[in-house]
Amino acid sequence: MRRILSENGWVIGLAAMLALLLIFTKMIQPQFGLSGLDSLSRAVLPFAFATAAMAVVVIAGGIDLSVASMMAVTSVTAALLMQGAGDVAAAGVVVFVLLLGLAMGALNGALIVVTRVPDIVVTLSMLFVWEGVALLVLNAPGGAAAGWLKAMIVGGVTIPGVPDGMTAWLPRSTLFMALVIGAIWLPIRRSRLGLSIYAIGSDANAAFRSGVPVARTRIAAYAICGLLSACGGLSLTFSTGIGEPIPGPYLLASVAGVVLGGVVLGGGRGGLLGPIIAVVILRLVRLDLTLLAVDPNVTTIIEGTIMVVVVMLGGLLAAKGRH
Amino acid sequence: MRDLAQPTPIKRLVRFLGDNPMIPLIVLLLGLIGLLEVLRPGIVNERWIANTIKFAIPLAMLAACQTLTMLTGGIDLSAGVVATIAAFVMATQVPHLGVPLAIAVSLVPALLIGLLNGVGIAFFRVHPLIMTLGTGLVGTGILQVYQRSVIASGSVVPEVLGWLGSGRTWGVPNALVLFVPFAVVLIIGQRRTGFGRLLYALGANPGAARLSGVRAWQVYIALYVLSALIAGITGLLYVGLIKAPSLSLVNPLMLPSVAAAVIGGTSIFGGRGGYGGTILGALILTVLGTMLTLLQMPEGVRRILFGAIILAVTAIYIRLTESN
Amino acid sequence: MAKQDSPAPILDASGVSKTFGAVIALRDASLRIDAGEIVALMGANGAGKSTFVKILTGALRPDSGHVRIRGRDTNVASPSQARKSGLVPVYQEPSLIPDLDVADNLTLGSTPKEPFRHWVSELGIADLRLDAKIGQLPLATLRILDLARALATEPDVLLLDEMTAALPTNLVERVLRVVRQQATSGRAVIYISHRFSEIAELCDRASVLRDGVTVGDLPIGPAVEDQIVELMLGAKLAPNRKREVVAADVAAPGSMPRLKVRGLGDGAKLGNVSFDLHPGEVLGVVGLEGQGQDELFDILAGFRPAKAGSFEIDGRPATFRDPADAIAAGVTLVPGDRANALFMDRSVQENIAVPLLARLRHWGPIPMRAQTRRVNDAIERLQIETRAQGEVRRLSGGNQQKVTIARWIAKGVQTLLLFDPTRGIDVRTKRQIYALVRDLADQGAAVLFYTSELNEVRLACDRAVVIFGGRVVDVIDAAEADDQTLMRAAYGLTEDADESVPA
User: Fold this and answer.
1) Is A308's CB within 8 Å of B311's CB?
2) Which of the residues A87, A221, B126, B131 has the least number of beta carbons within 10 Å of its own beta carbon?
3) For chain B, what percent of residues have pLDDT higher than 90?
4) Do residues C47 and C209 make contact, with C-beta atoms less than 8 angstroms apart?
5) What letter does residue A212 receive in the DSSP assignment?
6) DSSP H helical segments within C249-367, as ranges?
7) Which residues of chain C approach chain A closer than 8 Å at the C-beta?
8) Amino acid A55: pLDDT
9) How many Cβ atoms are within 10 Å of C197's Cβ, its own excluded?
């Protein structure tokens, strides 16, 4: 028990902080209830996927600056293809877009491995490239999303045969996020691939000597990052009903979420749960500031400052870890 | 050493071009201009050249921020936001403070952001890319708040900046009055001042710089403050060219400024390159921009192209240095 | 394929050569080990031992020659393939993933768990939890786990690199016993160690490399140490050239030392080092690889803080937080790896001038004429053969090394720390560097000169301190410092050292 506590102390601390913030929110806004929770959860969705995507590559010892741009590409692609498409076709679109994300991520990884240009430079270039691709697909917000897909992330959970009161407190979007990320990450996490991802981030040389195929693992990590980015892009399209070609503010938020979530920049440590809770906290802080009637632009500044400070502390921790 | 013995003609050519990186850039620039003339005969005339220079100057100045920071292996992604802030603050303060004071005041937030960048990079060891991205975001937020407080008083672009940014005298852009001394100071300064040399040293080998007694934090802070100052001045010049201050004024120059420095032969890993190449890079990109507009290429293609150029040039650079 | 009559050796490597650019690391290395044998692989610094090990383990491909295990050519392109072919190395740096737990590391390396547990307890670690994070285990435990992991895969050949370094005595005994058992049960073991006592106790033979060639293969017997030392040094000792200037009188007790080091330590590698370095003196430092010399030089040059002990410069206690502090106190370092000291893409001029520009007050316009004169004087004094405008990367190794020294000549030398300054450079340049060092000392500089080439003690130094296991084990006058004396001391074979060898 003590071991579990000490190893997951950071995540437990974050969860406690999240609970406190929720209570605080309820205190300053007594009407905050199911619908508030629902809209918060929906707003968090793209951030959570972006953070999860970033976390995977950071665990593998890299970074991907093109996460937000890949989300834009997948979002507009989905919105464009779903326009006028039937419900069944929409499902096909979802599959296609997920594969597209996987391929984009794999391309990022392959470029890093093949060109031997550092990840930060490659993904900066790809940030621009994917941005351009998104604009080519759709040069202004537009497209559509299938109704049943929107319904997946709106409202509370209802299970036939179970009274709504028992399940409705849980926003569908939260369940959606948990199921999707769980379905992608949990099988990988305990597999050889998952161990290899941690291994190359922790000590690439020791990993190589232990027989880990370092290059292939790196590409796989970026591919997973692309897949999760695609989930983020889809969630954007589902919740807004359109595709938006200009990347949202997900890059810095995801880096801040990763750092605050206990994933060390430099790799090898942490998981996905911490970063996701962290990014929820960051969104909740924003919500609370709004509820406290703080000017929304000041809120942006405060949020940005928090993120910059978090990233700075992360830099300091990573530098300490290197010594 | 080994490679002194019998270099092949190709190797010799590569080395010659490596020693004189300006030559391929000039050839490329002339080639693009020639191509433009073929695409649209008669387009290349005195007026076009003056216009191209006029638009290349703000880009070249913003690219100076990238060049200087890239010499140390960094980058300044907040430069565009800083330039916008300076321009916007200046234009909105002119009605209150008058032109000279408004210009002075407008550079204060720029310098503060530069200082913050320097501190984060020097003491907290945040990667410059992440740090400047973050401060840029915060800067944008602050600018939005600021905008609401001055929304009533309106904005004025002083005549002097209009003259400087977009005016011409005997067909020659007035901006050269600012730019020529600026470029001369930078080009001479990068080789003939202690600070300039330390930028190269720090980028070429931070460990060796430390061994030589360089305190990197001093250089980083001075560098990022200087970069922000240049960005601020660029913003003032650019608003004189565009004449309409907005919250995203200089943002379109951000990506090209990085590309201009990279094309100009400055290594994104530090220690190589210089401002001379960057100026050519800015001219090349401006001409390329004209060409893309002429071919009615959408904005998306432009971004893809610039991103691909940065990656390709960097990858080629790595190959070249490895073969040495 | 006909079956061979005589039992084939388990490992048979012969005619192995490898060059890196112009540097020949291995000319003709060979190693033959039969079942049940433990063979010590020996060689002085730079003999090619580590290259040979890399080739045996598949981290490098040989240019020529072959490596066969049980008669099959090993076609090793990666460590995982070498493992499959039957040779399993245990490196000095444990190759376990620090952020994963033990069980995950086993999964990653496809190590069977039960045999692993068996070996761990056999090796004397009773209470290992498989869910313990590697990063939180002590280094000694990690080395044992690494060994247990290797044993669990039942390799044909086991390669142990300094296996007992960093182990406490009780674990050392266990390890030696297990290794011997491995041999008895028909496996082959390659044993690399600096500790003669262990080699004498454990090994059957010693194979000695010198200058990339396997020069001898001796059975271990009484007084084999001297034979091995002789083989490592070569039969012909370098001519003992007497220097004319003997600066020992300058170092007479009573005069104020420039650098006074007392009980310096960094916790792990560097134990307890004390010595005095006087103005006008060249003090050699001799030690096998990894005996604490890197840490010693790093601390003195301001690259890392000392964890124990202290040092004084001209009688004033010194604490350096940064190399800049050391330089301000006149202590300047020429590091072992030139690549760490040079701005390869920049010109010779610029390289030499950087220390002159480092401080804030020199950031402004460079007084070009004065600086060029200073730099050119240094270039001339060191006879650097170059157009001064050319990039440093285009210079020969010798000239590059001269640039790293010229930098401090231009700045002005008070206390110069030279870390193996002649490694990998030509004889003529070496001579020039010895002469220069002597010249500097005659002008009042104090020079600390670590060398991996023993004869340099006679050629360049006044005295030498020998360090072993992070301690000074001997101080030898240059006049008496013949290679054998130094080598024996460096291996901790001097009598008083035997007692102080750390476990």
Assistant:
1) no
2) A87
3) 46
4) yes
5) -
6) 293-300, 323-328, 348-357
7) 78-80, 83, 91, 93-100, 104-105, 107-110, 131, 133
8) 95
9) 14
The verdict on a CB contact (< 8 Å) between A210 and C107 is no
Assess whether pLDDT exceeds 60 at residue B213.
Answer: yes
As given in the structure block, the two tokens for residue B13 are 């050519």
Yes or no, beta carbons of B134 and A128 under 8 Å apart: no
Q: Helix, strand, coil shares of chain B as percentages rounded to 5?
A: 80, 0, 20
User: Average pLDDT over chain C, rounded to whole?
Assistant: 83
* pLDDT tens figures, C294-312: 899 999 999 998 888 989 9
Q: How far is CA A216 from CA A120, A226, C95, in A?
A: 18, 15, 19
* pLDDT given for residue B17 in this prediction: 66
Q: What is the number of CB-based contacts under 8 A between chain A and chain C?
A: 57
Which residues, other chains included, contact A307 with Cβ-Cβ below 8 Å and sequence gap of 6+?
A: A252, A253, A255, A256, A282, B134, B137
**Tokens, residue C215:** 């020069």
Task: State the smallest CA–CA distance between residue C339 and chain B in angstroms.
Answer: 8
Q: Do A210 and C78 touch (CB under 8 A)?
A: no
Residues 6+ apart with CB under 8 A from C318: C311, C312, C326, C329, C331
pLDDT at position B109 is 94
Positions in chain A whose pLDDT score sits under 70: 1-7, 318-323
Contact B214, C346 (CB under 8 A): no
Distance CA B94, CA B88 (A): 10
Among candidates A223, A193, A268, A274, which has minimal Cα distance to A13?
Answer: A274
DSSP 8-state secondary structure symbol assigned to residue C6: S
Residue C153's closest CA among C244, C83, C257, C61?
C83
- Calculated CA dihedral for residues A48, A51, A52, A57, nearest 10 degrees: 170
Whether the CB-CB separation of C75 and C81 falls below 8 Å is answered with yes
Highest mean pLDDT among B92-106, B109-123, C245-259: B109-123
Find the range with the poorest average confidence among A310-319, B104-113, B279-288, C389-398: A310-319
Cβ atoms of A97 and A149 within 8 Å: the answer is no
Q: Pick from B133, B303, B310: which is nearest to A251 by CB?
A: B133
